[in-house]
Design brief:
Layout (H helix, E strand, L loop, with lengths): L1 H13 L2 H19 L5 H8 L8 H26 L8 H12 L3 H34 L4 H18 L4 H15 L2 E2 L6 E2 L13 H20 L19 H21 L8 H16 L12 H24 L5 H12 L6 H6 L1 H22 L3 H5 L6 H20 L2 H19 L5 H23 L11 H47 L1
Antiparallel strand pairs: 1-2
Length: about 525
C-alpha cells in the first residue's frame, strides 16, 4: 500500500501540464529518431544532454524516458515498411513484419508492433514500480567489493555479448576506461595522461564523448560511406489499422511470452534489448515448427509480436535497474546515468531517500509515455514514415551543427569543440571497423566507480586483494557472470557450427550440380 501511495503521489507530479508536455516531447523525439535510419534513442539522449541542464531534473528525466521508449516504437516502423531496421533491436521484428507488409498487411503489422511494445513496456513499468524499491533496499548491503564486482560484471558481459568479436568488445571497453582515467587523480592529486595540458586536468567530459561517438561519428560515417547505406521502397499501409479478434488471439500468447523473456534482461548488462528480441523470435519460431501448417517465413504475426514485447519490457526493466542499482545495461541507460551525476544525483537507495518526488514522478511517467506512444504510433505510423523523405545532407548537417552548439553551450571552450571532432573521428573509425559503442560508454561511466571501489575495498582490508572475492553477493555476481559468458560462448560456437554446416551443404550442392551438368 505504501508503494501505491507513493506511485499516486508520482502521478500527481507527472500529470502537471509542464511534465505532460515533456513526456510528449520525449515521445515525439524518440519515435522520430527511431524511424530515421542510423539514429536511435542513444543518439537523441546524447544530443539532448547538453541542452537539458537548464531544465528541472524531473522534467529532464521524464523527457529522456520518453525518448528511450519512443526509440523502440519507431525502430519497428522502419523495419516493417522498408525492411531496413533503424537499430539492432528491430532486426528480429523485421523478419516477419516486412513479410506481412509485402502480403498487404502492413497496417496490421504496425498495429501488432505498437500493441506489443505497449504491453511489454506497460507490464515492465508495473514490475519496476514494485521491484525497484526492493532492489534499492537490497543495494544498501553493497560495499566497495560488491560495487566493484557489479562494475566488472557490466564490463565483461557488455563487451563480450554485444558483438561477435570479444576482442573488439574488450578494445572498445578499454578505450572507454582509458578516457575515464584522464585528469587529476582524486586520491593522490597527481595528473594522469594529461600531457601537461591544463585543459585535461578536469578530464574529458562524458557529454563530449557521448555526443562525439554517438552523433558526430555516425554523421561522418554516413557522409563518407553513404554509398553503402541502402533502403527499400516504402510500403504504404492499406486497410484497417487494427487487429481482428482472430489476430488478437494469435498474437496474445506471443506478446505474453515476449514480455516474460524480456523482463530478466532488463537487469542483466548484456547490451540492451537485442538479445531478448532474438530469443523471443527464436522461441516463437520453434513453437511454430511444431504446427501442422507452419507460418514463419510467410508473415507470421507471432514472429513480430514477441520481439516487440520483449524489446520494450527489457527497456522498462532497464530503467528500474538504473534507478535502484545505478546499473546501465545499454548505451542509452549509461548516458542517463551520466545525466543523473551531472545533476548531482546518484541512482541507488540514496536516490529513493533524497529525491523521492523525482523517482516516483519518473516511474509514473512510464505509464503515461506508454499510452502516448500507443496513440502516436497506432494510427499515425505512415506519417512518421514520411520522415524518411528528408534529404540526408540536410538531416546530418543539422545534427552536426546541433552537436557543436550543444557542446559549446555547455563548456564555452574551443578546446572541447576540437575534442568533439577528434573523438568523433574515433567514433567513425569504430563504426567503420564494426567496434561496438556500448562498451566504450559503459566503461567511461562505470570506470570511476570501479576504480574508487577497488581502492576503498583494498585499503579497508589492508591491501588484501582477496576481499574482492569474498561475500555471498560478490560470489553470486561472479557466478552470474560466468553463466552469462557461458551462454554467450555456447551461442557463438553453435552459430559457427551451423554456418560451417550450411557452407558445406552449399558446397556439396554446387559439386553435385556441376557433376550433373557434365553428365
Amino acid at each position: 500500500m505504501e508503494t501505491l501511495q507513493l506511485l499516486l503521489d508520482g502521478f500527481a507530479g507527472a500529470l502537471s501540464w509542464q511534465n505532460l508536455l515533456w513526456v510528449l516531447i520525449g515521445c515525439l523525439l524518440g519515435t522520430a529518431v527511431g524511424v530515421l535510419p542510423g539514429l536511435g534513442s542513444s543518439m537523441a539522449v546524447a544530443l539532448l544532454l547538453p541542452v537539458t541542464f537548464s531544465l528541472e531534473p524531473t522534467a529532464a528525466f521524464i523527457m529522456f524516458a520518453g525518448v528511450y521508449f519512443g526509440g523502440l516504437f519507431g525502430d519497428s516502423t522502419m523495419g516493417i515498411l522498408m525492411n531496413t531496421p533503424g537499430q539492432a533491436s528491430a532486426i528480429a521484428s523485421t523478419f516477419e513484419g516486412h513479410k506481412m507488409a509485402l502480403n498487404g498487411r502492413a497496417a496490421q503489422a504496425l498495429a501488432t508492433a505498437a500493441i506489443g511494445a505497449f504491453i511489454g513496456g506497460f507490464v515492465a513499468s508495473i514490475v519496476v514500480v514494485f521491484l525497484a524499491p526492493v532492489l534499492a533496499d537490497f543495494s544498501t548491503r553493497f560495499g566497495p567489493a560488491e560495487f566493484f564486482a557489479l562494475a566488472v560484471f557490466a564490463f565483461a558481459a557488455t563487451s563480450s555479448v554485444v558483438t561477435d568479436s570479444a576482442v573488439r568488445g574488450l578494445a572498445a571497453l578499454f578505450i572507454g576506461l582509458g578516457i575515464a582515467v584522464i585528469g587529476i587523480d582524486g586520491v593522490s592529486g597527481a595528473p594522469r595522461f594529461t600531457m601537461d595540458s591544463p585543459n585535461l586536468f578536469d578530464g574529458i567530459s562524458l557529454v563530449t564523448v557521448t555526443v562525439a561517438v554517438l552523433a558526430l561519428g555516425e554523421v561522418i560515417y554516413v557522409a563518407c560511406l553513404e554509398r553503402h547505406v541502402t533502403g527499400g521502397k516504402i510500403i504504404r499501409p492499406k486497410g484497417r489499422p487494427w487487429l481482428s479478434r482472430a489476430e488478437m488471439r494469435e498474437a496474445a500468447p506471443a506478446w505474453a511470452r515476449g514480455t516474460a523473456i524480456g523482463l530478466p534482461f532488463g537487469i542483466i548488462p548484456a547490451g540492451g534489448s537485442e538479445i531478448p528480441t532474438f530469443l523471443a523470435y527464436g522461441v516463437e519460431k520453434r513453437l511454430d515448427a511444431r504446427r501442422s501448417r507452419p507460418k514463419f517465413g510467410t508473415g507470421a504475426i507471432r514472429g513480430l509480436a514477441a520481439p516487440e514485447a520483449a524489446g520494450n519490457s527489457t527497456t522498462g526493466m532497464a530503467m528500474g535497474a538504473l534507478l535502484a542499482l545505478g546499473l546501465p545495461i545499454s548505451a542509452t541507460a549509461a548516458i542517463m546515468l551520466a545525466a543523473f551525476r551531472q545533476y548531482g544525483l546518484q541512482p541507488g537507495p540514496l536516490l529513493f531517500e533524497r529525491a523521492p518526488e523525482l523517482v516516483w514522478a519518473l516511474l509514473a511517467s512510464f505509464f503515461i509515455a506508454m499510452i502516448m506512444l500507443l496513440i502516436l504510433n497506432l494510427p499515425f505510423a505512415m506519417l512518421w514514415a514520411k520522415l524518411l523523405l528528408i534529404p540526408r545532407p540536410y538531416l546530418y548537417a543539422g545534427i552536426t551543427v546541433f552537436c557543436a552548439f550543444g557542446i559549446y553551450a555547455t563548456s564555452g571552450s574551443v578546446f572541447d569543440l576540437l575534442m568533439l571532432l577528434g573523438i568523433g573521428i574515433v567514433g567513425f573509425l569504430m563504426r567503420a571497423l564494426d567496434f561496438p559503442i556500448a562498451p566504450l560508454i559503459i566503461g567511461m561511466v562505470l570506470g570511476p566507480l570501479a576504480e574508487t571501489s577497488l581502492r576503498d575495498a583494498t585499503m579497508s582490508a589492508g591491501g588484501d586483494f582477496s576481499v574482492l572475492v569474498q561475500g555471498p553477493i560478490v560470489l553470486t555476481l561472479y557466478a552470474l557472470l560466468v553463466l552469462v559468458l557461458g551462454f554467450a560462448i555456447r551461442g557463438r560456437v553453435r552459430a559457427r557450427r551451423e554456418a560451417r554446416l550450411a557452407a558445406g551443404l552449399a558446397a556439396g550442392a554446387s559439386v553435385r550440380a556441376e557433376a550433373r551438368s557434365e553428365v
